[in-house]
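The material for today's practical consists of a large collection of protein records. There is nothing in a record beyond a sequence line and a structure line. Backbone structure tokens are a discrete shorthand for how the chain folds in space. Nothing more is needed to start thinking about how sequence determines fold. As an example, a complete record with its sequence and its structure tokens follows.
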Amino acid sequence: MAVAAKELPACPVETTLMLISDKWKVLILRDLMPGTKRFGELKKSIGTVSQKVLTAQLREMEQSGLLTRTVYPEVPPRVEYTLTNLGRSLKPILDAMWNWGEAYKAKNGG
């Protein structure tokens, strides 16, 4: 469930940060931009995140309306995560972060 408008910060930048401020959330967004992934695929692609933290971040992002979680009635259970249209709308922000990071690395010998 999305955050009620009255609970959102007055500043739009602060609102955006509230939704994606954790580094894991940004990496989850990055890794889901190309398409749907299972939990294990996300954990592997993100790296050092613990299962507990990844689960918490995914739940928060689902509650914010940035992604959907689909559970398939199989044994063992299969769970997939997909960005919503709202989540995909963050692509220009991630692209800008990518471009800025590339320019910074180029300028600073990275």
